[in-house]
Recover the amino acids of this structure.
């Protein structure tokens, strides 16, 4: 590790910079270590040329000039001009914001200087407007050619950041290679040190936007680091014993469902039964399309755990979803005699009683939000953790949850022989493409529910221009149906329709009591009250943000209107569409679009009309938008990829998979690789 220590040293070990600049660098680059700056890549280039005959508007003209004279304007509305000579050619240096004393100090008459900036040809000759470089003539050679342009933060100039990064390259030792040479040769990869240098020294814009050999190497390293982390987590989990649980029928045998389980649901349950009966902790992801029946599978799994004397937890990201699950599970378990409770962050009045009931096993099944993860929450004998809407939590959150469950899940006075870490069942209502399963869920076994229950209605999807909104709203008002109307933002926007404005418009068409509004800034009690009124048919039309995207199960609502549908991703459109078609009536999804519609937007609308297959849509969404937008920005170890994008780099992910199988996951080299690239915290110790 010592050979790599300098990468994690502060920049100030190699460059003298002020405390103020250090703060700016931390904000801009995410840190002030050497590696933070080396991994802060250029986002564009600037060509500085000395060719006065062939420069373009995009170039910056760099010339060695002699100052001839100053032309101060009569009034402040006119520019200040400095007349200079480059050989036999006279040019004008133009300033619109100036201080006369400063101008004369910077441009002494007769002085020879290097000047570089945006240039333009005018009737009066060539002008350089507000040059960004004015320095000694001897520096001219450094400012001719391709210059890397970096993402910046307010107060930090590209000149300053470029200087710091250039100084780092001059000062640090050569970076040792951590991938064995035989693997580099086999997969035709350049060295890491060469890749880092090349990325910071682009020769053209193609080096910025294309998958060059340098960027390919960096992308593979990042994917490789995440794969190593996932394998380390998986191997560490498997080193521990879990609670052995076998179905005995005391509860599952008495469960009376009002429907028949599908073939996929039965297959998924068989996978779970095998996991629970093993000494290795279950770490399984159940993915399925909207309405595929994942909740029932999870409930039966929890019953198996409870009938063996253990507790179960259902963790969800929102209070609306928690309330929905609580209601569903109470109804399903009506005749089973199990104690179910709900824990919400907004309801602390009965928290102390719940804490005691959990410690004493009086609560057998707990539904809740992140409130469950608070330090003072302990369980007597926790056997299963179910995480719904898995993508809202992520790899590191799963690890921390298991640590909490291991530390607090078994009271020290009530340990059983089976002991160990609890089983984990994650669920995702967004079908996940195989590429993402490989790259982001490598620590999980996966079961898939594709077939939908026969009772689910087909949802007819159609598109509608906002120019015909009056006609649409009038037709909807005449229908005996409950309607969702989704807008992308809460507050007024110049480009997007907000819920408040749209609600005011619809109130003029519908009767005022029939229309209500729902969004994420409301208090939980207020949101729950509105959902209850909608469920009880007191509200006909609910104007909402995407807060209703998951967890809302209201069979009476059979029409979904999504405004600005061209702006949403396919996965989210499909999730929203899945809120209808849950009752006995025909269901409709109306995609309301605003012109102009981009090619990608038009393609989304077309795909939504053509298919209700969430798996197909997820694959297409990956192609259209990339990994960072498929499941939402909170997915740890997934949306945080900086240098690779699954949509384009599936082949690179395959290479990373092959390389990782050849590496020693416990070596210093792999540790360094992970420390450099992986956004998944090295927190495998949480299981030990």
């Amino acid at each position: 590790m010592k050979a790599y220590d300098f990468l994690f040293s502060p920049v100030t070990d190699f460059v003298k910079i002020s405390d103020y600049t250090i703060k700016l660098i931390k904000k801009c680059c995410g840190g002030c270590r050497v590696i933070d700056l080396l991994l802060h890549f250029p986002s564009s280039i600037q060509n500085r040329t000395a060719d006065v005959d062939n420069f373009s508007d995009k170039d910056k003209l760099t010339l060695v000039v002699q100052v001839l004279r100053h032309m101060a304007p009569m009034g402040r509305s006119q520019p200040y001009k400095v007349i200079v000579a480059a050989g036999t050619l006279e040019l004008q240096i133009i300033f619109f914001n100036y201080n006369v004393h400063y101008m004369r100090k910077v441009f002494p008459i007769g002085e020879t200087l290097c000047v570089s900036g945006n240039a333009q040809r005018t009737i009066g000759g060539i002008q350089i407007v507000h040059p960004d470089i004015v320095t000694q003539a001897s520096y001219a050679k450094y400012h001719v050619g391709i210059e890397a342009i970096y993402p910046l933060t307010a107060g930090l100039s590209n000149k300053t950041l470029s200087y710091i990064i250039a100084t780092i390259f001059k000062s640090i030792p050569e970076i040792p290679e951590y991938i064995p040479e035989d693997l580099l040769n086999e997969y035709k990869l350049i060295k890491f040190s060469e890749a880092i240098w090349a990325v910071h020294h682009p020769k053209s814009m193609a080096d910025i936007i294309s998958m060059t050999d340098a960027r390919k190497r960096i992308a593979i390293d990042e994917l490789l680091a995440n794969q190593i982390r996932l394998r380390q987590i998986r191997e560490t989990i498997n080193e521990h014993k879990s609670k052995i649980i076998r179905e005995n029928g005391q509860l599952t045998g008495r469960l009376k469902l009002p429907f028949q389980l599908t073939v996929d649901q039965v297959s998924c349950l068989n996978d779970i039964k095998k996991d629970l009966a093993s000494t290795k902790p279950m770490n399984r992801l159940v993915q399925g399309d909207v309405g595929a029946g994942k909740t029932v599978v999870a409930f039966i799994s929890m019953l198996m755990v409870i009938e063996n004397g253990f507790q179960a937890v259902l963790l969800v990201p929102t209070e609306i979803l928690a309330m929905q699950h609580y209601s569903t599970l109470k109804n399903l378990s009506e005749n089973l005699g199990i104690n179910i409770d709900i824990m919400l962050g907004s309801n602390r009045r009965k928290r102390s009683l719940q804490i005691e009931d959990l410690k004493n096993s009086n609560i057998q099944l707990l539904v809740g939000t992140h409130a469950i993860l608070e330090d003072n929450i302990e369980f007597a004998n926790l056997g299963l953790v179910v995480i719904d809407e898995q993508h809202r939590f992520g790899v590191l959150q799963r690890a921390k949850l298991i640590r909490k469950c291991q530390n607090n899940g078994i009271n020290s006075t009530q340990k059983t022989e089976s002991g160990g870490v609890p089983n984990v069942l994650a669920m995702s209502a967004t079908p996940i493409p195989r590429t993402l399963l490989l790259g982001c869920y490598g620590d999980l076994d996966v079961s898939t529910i594709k077939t939908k229950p026969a009772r689910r209605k087909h949802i007819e999807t159609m598109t509608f221009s906002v120019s015909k909104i009056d006609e649409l709203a009038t037709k909807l008002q005449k229908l005996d149906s409950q309607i969702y109307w989704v807008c992308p933002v809460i507050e007024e926007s110049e480009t997007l329709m907000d819920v408040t404005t749209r609600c005011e418009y619809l109130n003029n068409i519908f009767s005022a009591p029939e229309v209500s509004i729902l969004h994420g800034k409301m208090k939980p009690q207020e949101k729950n009250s509105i959902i209850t009124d909608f469920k009880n048919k007191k509200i006909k039309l609910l104007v909402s943000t995407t807060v209703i995207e998951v967890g809302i199960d209201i069979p009476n609502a059979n029409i979904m209107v999504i405004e600005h549908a061209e702006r949403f991703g396919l996965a989210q459109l499909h999730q929203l569409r899945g809120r209808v078609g849950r009752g006995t009536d025909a269901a409709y999804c109306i995609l309301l679009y605003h012109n102009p519609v981009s090619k990608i937007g038009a393609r989304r609308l077309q795909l939504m009309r053509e298919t209700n297959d969430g798996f197909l849509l997820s694959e297409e969404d990956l192609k259209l938008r990339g990994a960072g937008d498929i499941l939402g920005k909170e997915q740890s170890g997934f949306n945080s990829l900086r240098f690779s994008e699954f949509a384009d780099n599936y082949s690179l992910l395959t290479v990373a998979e092959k390389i990782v199988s050849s590496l020693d996951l416990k070596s210093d080299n792999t540790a360094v690789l992970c420390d450099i690239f992986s956004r998944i915290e090295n927190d495998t110790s949480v299981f030990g």
Notes: The radius of gyration is 31 Å. Confidence is low (pLDDT under 50) at residues 408-418, 626-639, 682-688. The chain is about 35% helix and 20% strand.
